[in-house]
UniProtKB/TrEMBL annotation, chains B, C:
Gene Ontology molecular functions: iron-sulfur cluster binding; metal ion binding; transferase activity
Taxonomic superkingdom: Archaea
Keyword terms: Iron, Iron-sulfur, Metal-binding, Pyridoxal phosphate, Transferase
Name of the molecule in the record: Aminotransferase class V domain-containing protein
Species assigned in the record: Palaeococcus pacificus DY20341
Cofactors, names only: pyridoxal 5'-phosphate
Keyword Iron tagged: yes
Coiled coil: none
Length: 149, 382, 382
C-alpha cells in the first residue's frame, strides 16, 4: 500500500491548479496506465518561482505531481534539470514498485517543460528529437494510446 | 463505521456460518478419508455430505453432481480445461466480458492446440447470440456467466444453451455472482457445468462447488487420491464446506428483492451527479446487488482511495488500480472508452446494506468526485 | 474420550490458531486484491504477508519464494507439472513410496510426452541413491519427500540433492509430514521446491505453502488473475493463511523431542505383541510422531474399526480400507508382503499426546489383535 506521506499529498495536494500567463507548460501521459498530468511553471531569472499542476490519474500520480511542484519551487533551472524520478520517489518516502511509473510521469513532465523553456530561450533547436520528447509519452486518456500514433 | 459496498469481491461471513465452522475447527476436526473412515472422521464425512446435499438441492442437482474445489478460479479451470482435455481437440469459446480466470484459461488452451474465440456483447453487456451461433463450428465448450461480476448483466442462458447444444458443444456457466441472488435451476437453464462459490454468499473463503451434469466427462487438473471421486483429489476442507452449506441454507430471496430496490435508488442518486453514466442494464436484467457507473474526468483509484478514507469501500475498473495496469476489459468490451473504464466504480450490496448507507455512499461519492474534478486536467469540462 | 493417533492424516487446530482465524472471519473479512486494495482490504493483505514472512523465516527462505495454495495435493501438482511444463520435455522421477498425489501426478505427465521413473527404496524405506543416480539421464525433476507419510522414514536429502543437481535436474521436496517436527533449512537441504501444509501442524485446512527457490521457473496449473504473482491466481483464503502463520509461530521443537520418546515407548510396547513387526527405521531417522507396525494374521480395517469403537483412532495400510482396494504401496514398496500391508497400522502422535494415551492405545490394540487372531483363518499361526 501507500505510505502516509503519499496519502497525505494525495488527500491534500499542494499547488493544484493553473498559473496565469505561465512561462511554460507541459503535459505528460503515462504509457503504462494512460494517466496524465499537466505542469505550469513560472520562471524568472532562470529560477522557478512558481509551479502548479493538474492531474487525471491515480493517488500516486497526484502525490508525485504535487511533491514535485514543491521540490522545484525556488530551484534554478540547472538544479531542476537534475531531478530524476527516483528523487521524487525518495521525497515521498517510497512508492510501491508498480507505481514507480507515476513518478516517471512527473519527472517526464518536468523534463519536457524545461526542454521547452530552453527552446523559448533559444538554447535549443526544435529538431526531431525534441518533438519526440514532447510527444512520445503523451497518452490520450480517451483512447489510452500515445498521441504519436 | 465502514460502509462495505464491495460484496462482489467478498462478503462478510454470516455469524451462523462462523458458528458451525468453529464446531468443525474445535472438536470435529477430522477429515473424510475413504468410505470407511474411523468413526472420528464420520462426523466430518457426514457434515460434508450434508452440505453437498443442501447445495445440490438449492440448484436442483443431485449430490453426486457436486464437486468441491478451493475457489471459483479452480472451478473455472477445472471445468474448462477438464472438458477440453477430455475432448482432446476443438474450439473453446467465452464471451469478451468473462472474469480473468475464464478468459485466461481459455486462452491457455491454445498451448494444447485448441482453437479459441471470444464472443462480443452489446452496449449493455448482453452476449451477441447470433455471433455465438455463427462461431460454434467445431466447438466443444462455451464458457460464460449468469450475472456479470462487474456490470451485473444477467445473460439469457436458456437461449444461449439452446444455441450451444444445437451445435453439439457443452455449456459451462460461472454462476458465482448470481448465486444466492437469483434462483438457479440447472435443469431449466440446461447447463452442463456450473460454478458457485461460498465467499460471495456470506460463507467462508476456501471452497467453491462445481456442478458437473451426470455423464459429462472431464479430466482432472490435479492428480492424487480418490477424494471427490478423483475429480478433485486432496484434503477436504471440512470447516469451509460446512460453512458453505450453512450459507446456502441461509439464502433468502427476499433479501435480493430488497437489494434490488436499494440498487435502483443508488443508481438514481449517482446518475444525478453530472457527467455520470450507468454501465450495464437497468431493471430485472441486472444483478440485484450490482451498481456500476463511470464518472467522467476522474480516475477510479483516486475516487476509491478518497472514499476509503471516509469509510466507504468498493471497487474500480481503473487501469491504475489493476495489477497489470490495464483498464477493465468489461467496460472496454461493452464499447466503453478508455476513460469510461478509468473512471468506473462498482458498488456491490449485501443483504445487510441499509438505505441509510446507500444515501451516505452517494453523498461521499458526490463530494469526492467534485473535489477530484477540480484537480483534473479536464476540470470538469472537456 | 477419544485417543486421536491419526495426526499424520490431519491435526486438531490449536485454540490460538482458531482465535486468530475468528478475527479474520468476523471482522477483517476483506481479501487482498491488487497492490492497492482499499484500506479495508489492507488489514487482510498485511496479515497474509505477515504469515508469509513467518513461514519463510521458519524454513530460511525469503517471502517472495512462498506461494500459498489450497492443500498439499495442489502443491505437489503445481511443483511437478509446473516444472515439467516449463521445461517442455524430459524425465520426471519420484520414489516408489511417495504420496499418491506425487505418484499420480508424475504418472500423468506421460500424457504430455514425459518419461517417468520410480526409484526403489530399501527395507526401511530409504531411497536407493545409486539407483537414483543411474536413472537421472535426461531428468528435469526428482520429486520426493523428507519424512515418509506412512512409515516415517527421513530421507538423506543432502545426499539426494547433490546427486540430483549434479545431473542438472531440480529437486522437489514434499516436507509436509516432517515440517514442524524436524527443523528445515531450504538452503542447507539445497532443495528447489518444497511443500509444507497447515493442517498437519495444528493449523487449519484449506492452505499449504509451496516454496519455489528464486529463479526456478514453473508454469501455473490454474490461470486467472495476478494473485500470488500469477503462480496461483484465485481467492486468497485469508483466515486459513493467518491461521497457518499462527500455527508456524507455535512450532516448538521441544514437542518433537517429547513425541519421539513416546513414539519409542509405543513401538516397544507394540513389538511386545507376538508376530508384530515395525515398518520403517528406528531412532533419529524416523519422524518423531510416526509409529507403523504390521500385525500378522489380522486385517487392518477390522483392527481399526474395533479400536474405533473403543475410542482409539488411527490409520491402516489395508487394501480393504483404501478407496481403490489396493494395499499400501509404501509397505509393498519397502518389500513388505501383501499380508504385511494388509495388517499394517499407522499411529501418529501430536504435541498433545500423553504417555497415558500411549499405554491405553497399546492395551486396546493388544486386546483387539488378540481377539481378531482368534477369528483368523491363520489362528495366530501360519
Ligand atoms: C494417506 C493420506 N492420503 C492423503 C493425505 C492428504 O494429503 P492430500 O490432501 O495431499 O491428498 C494424507 C495426509 O497426509 C494421507 O496421509
Ligand atoms: C475483479 C475480481 N477479480 C477476482 C475475483 C475473485 O475471483 P477469483 O478468486 O476466481 O479470481 C473477483 C471476485 O468476484 C473479482 O470481482
Ligand atoms: S497514474 Fe495511473 S497508475 Fe499512477
Ligand atoms: S475383505 Fe472386504 S474389502 Fe477386504
Amino acid at each position: 500500500g501507500y505510505s502516509r506521506k503519499v496519502l497525505q499529498y494525495f488527500l491534500h495536494p499542494k499547488n493544484v491548479g493553473e498559473i496565469e500567463n505561465p512561462s511554460v507548460t507541459a503535459k505528460a501521459g503515462s504509457p503504462a496506465c494512460g494517466d496524465m498530468i499537466k505542469l505550469y511553471l513560472k520562471i524568472e531569472d532562470e529560477k522557478i518561482v512558481d509551479a502548479k499542476f493538474r492531474s487525471y490519474g491515480c493517488a500516486a500520480n497526484i502525490a508525485t505531481a504535487s511533491v514535485l511542484t514543491e521540490m522545484i519551487i525556488g530551484k534554478s533551472i540547472d538544479d531542476a534539470k537534475k531531478i530524476k524520478f527516483k528523487d521524487i520517489v525518495a521525497e515521498l518516502g517510497g512508492l510501491p514498485q508498480i507505481k514507480h511509473h507515476c513518478a516517471v510521469l512527473a519527472a517526464e513532465g518536468l523534463k519536457q517543460a524545461l526542454a521547452k523553456w530552453d527552446v523559448i530561450q533559444g538554447r535549443r533547436e526544435i529538431d526531431e528529437r525534441f518533438v519526440k520528447l514532447i510527444l512520445a509519452a503523451v497518452i490520450d486518456p480517451l483512447t489510452g494510446e500515445s498521441v504519436l500514433h | 463505521m465502514v460502509i462495505y459496498l464491495d460484496n462482489a469481491n467478498t462478503t462478510k461471513p454470516d455469524p451462523e456460518v462462523i458458528k458451525v465452522m468453529i464446531e468443525y475447527l474445535e472438536e470435529k476436526y477430522g477429515t473424510p478419508g475413504g468410505e470407511f473412515g474411523h468413526i472420528f472422521d464420520e462426523d466430518a464425512r457426514e457434515a460434508v455430505e450434508e452440505a453437498r446435499e443442501k447445495i445440490a438441492k438449492e440448484i436442483n442437482a443431485s449430490p453426486e453432481e457436486i464437486v468441491f474445489v478451493s475457489d471459483e478460479t479452480e472451478a473455472d479451470n477445472l471445468a474448462i480445461k477438464g472438458v477440453a482435455w477430455a475432448r482432446g481437440k476443438g474450439k473453446v469459446l467465452a464471451s469478451k466480458i468473462e472474469r480473468k480466470a475464464i478468459l485466461n484459461t481459455v486462452n491457455r488452451l491454445k498451448e494444447w492446440g485448441f482453437k479459441t474465440y471470444e464472443v462480443g456483447v452489446d452496449r449493455k453487456g448482453f452476449i451477441n447470440i447470433e455471433e455465438l451461433q455463427s462461431s460454434l463450428d467445431g466447438a466443444v465448450l462455451f464458457a460464460t456467466h449468469l450475472g456479470n461480476f462487474e456490470i451485473g448483466t444477467i445473460q439469457n442462458i436458456r437461449a444461449i444453451s439452446e444455441v450451444v447444444h444445437e451445435n453439439g458443444a457443452l455449456l459451462y456457466l460461472d454462476a458465482n455472482h448470481a448465486f444466492g441472488k437469483i434462483k438457479i435451476d440447472v435443469q431449466k437453464l440446461n447447463v452442463d457445468l456450473m460454478s458457485i462459490s461460498s465467499h460471495l454468499i456470506h460463507g467462508p473463503k476456501g471452497v467453491a462447488a462445481l456442478y458437473i451434469r451426470k455423464g459429462v466427462k472431464l479430466k482432472p487438473i490435479l492428480d492424487g487420491d480418490l477424494r471427490e471421486r478423483g475429480i478433485r483429489p486432496g484434503m477436504i476442507n471440512v470447516p469451509s464446506i460446512v460453512g458453505f452449506g450453512k450459507a446456502v441454507e441461509l439464502i433468502n430471496y427476499e433479501d435480493a428483492k430488497r437489494m434490488a430496490k436499494l440498487r435502483d435508488k443508488l443508481i438514481d442518486l449517482l446518475l444525478s451527479i453530472p457527467d455520470t453514466k450507468l454501465n450495464g442494464p437497468k431493471g430485472d436484467m441486472r444483478l440485484p446487488n450490482n451498481v456500476n457507473v463511470s464518472f467522467n474526468y476522474v480516475e477510479g483509484e483516486s475516487v476509491l482511495l478518497h472514499c476509503d478514507m471516509r469509510g466507504l469501500v468498493f471497487s474500480t475498473g481503473s487501469a491504475c488500480y489493476s495489477q497489470d495496469l490495464l483498464p477493465s476489459h468489461v467496460i472496454r468490451g461493452i464499447g466503453g472508452s478508455f476513460e469510461d473504464a478509468h473512471g468506473s466504480v462498482r458498488l456491490s450490496l449485501s443483504k445487510w446494506t441499509t438505505e441509510e448507507e446507500i444515501v451516505t455512499a452517494y453523498e461521499i461519492l458526490k463530494d469526492v468526485v467534485e473535489k477530484l474534478r477540480k484537480i483534473s486536467i479536464y476540470g470538469g469540462r472537456k
